[in-house]
Amino acid sequence: MKKIICLILSALLVCSLFGCGNNGGGGDEPVGGGKLVIYSPNTDALCAAAEVFGDKYGIEVQFINAKTGECLERIAAEKDNPQGDIMYGGMNYANSFNPEYKPLFEEYVAKGDDKLPEAYQNFNGITTHYCLDGSAALLVNVEEYKKLGLNIDEFDSYEDLLQPELFGKIAMGDPASSSSAWAELTNMLLVKGDEPYDEKAWEWVNTFAKNLNGVIIDGSSAIYKGTYEGEYVVGVSYEDPCVGLLVDQAKLGKEIVRLVYPSEGAVWLPAGAAIIKNAPNMENAKLFMDWLISDEGQREIAKTTARPVNPNIANTSELMTPFAQIKVVYENMELCGSHKKEWQTRWTEMFNAAKQ
To answer: How far apart are CA 37 and CA 83, in angstroms?
Structure first.
């Protein structure tokens, strides 16, 4: 079986990709073979699903793993000489419609897109949605929480993040640079006001920012890993990697962390992928997009701790909480996308003022 080459994003390794050429397909039909270079902020499990794709078509799949913002910056810097083929993950609604980013991607609608639920179909000609990300996942370190004299069984909401005992002990990413932290912010704004995204919701966010005590984590993985290891008491994270930790602790037979979906409501957003404009391995890129939402691709997604975008294919993990047990709410993605820069700036100003 061909092995996925996972590369860490660094100047040295990226420079080694500068000589990447096309796969020699050139025709209307994908032929497989050659290589495919994917930029991705995704978890290891989601990246590993592409091993099946690579093995099936005899394609060498290379991953450049980095945060969403770093991937997009790299793609923008390389626009006159693209080195990658796919942006896998990070293409949420706001990034997909951002006029700064949309021109960086190829117009392509994957085969089978029209079979997906209408809300998750390719809505702008470039973004293929392949799984659903739970944007409101509160990961609690059970032992550290109990040490504060708090009852872990009573932790069930965003409101519990404001407890004074948690001052400076919460791990949160930066919504100005992290796609998962941005999704968490918009989820908070949706459910913590009298009306979605109103000033009362912003007042709540301001109180929450003060309870962070200046702690902002660089990188989403540091949030859930740090909470699991006891560095933080609560991690404001997203569902996929948190369920992965539940799988790990189940093997140990010990509860280390607990995953809580806020009782105010949790949003599931479609995660997106897109082909980089003038990708060197264009036919392989199109083939990957088709495979990603095919039944086979969705079954591979279902083996991870992410929820497939195809509702007819269920996740195989018994540790995934059924939607029937979660208060699911729906974000106004267009509104959030159109206000992204404005709200990111407001968050930054609010957070900086809170830590002074």
So the answer is: 8
Q: Are residues 230 and 90 in the same domain?
A: no
Separation of alpha carbons 21 and 40, rounded Å: 20
Q: Do residues 74 and 161 share a domain?
A: no
User: pTM to 2 decimals?
Assistant: 0.73
| Most confident segment among 30-39, 146-155, 243-252 | 146-155
pLDDT of 31: 59
pLDDT digits (tens, 9 = 90+) for 16-44: 333 343 333 334 445 568 999 999 988 88
Query: What distance in Å separates the CA atoms of residue 260 and residue 162, rounded to the nearest whole number?
Result: 15
Residue with tokens 């179909």: 121
Percent of the chain with pLDDT over 70: 90
* Residues 163 and 97 reside in one and the same domain: no
Domain limits at 50?
A: 5-132+269-308
Is residue 190 domain-shared with residue 248, that is, in the same domain?
A: yes
Considering the domain boundaries, does residue 9 fall inside one?
A: yes
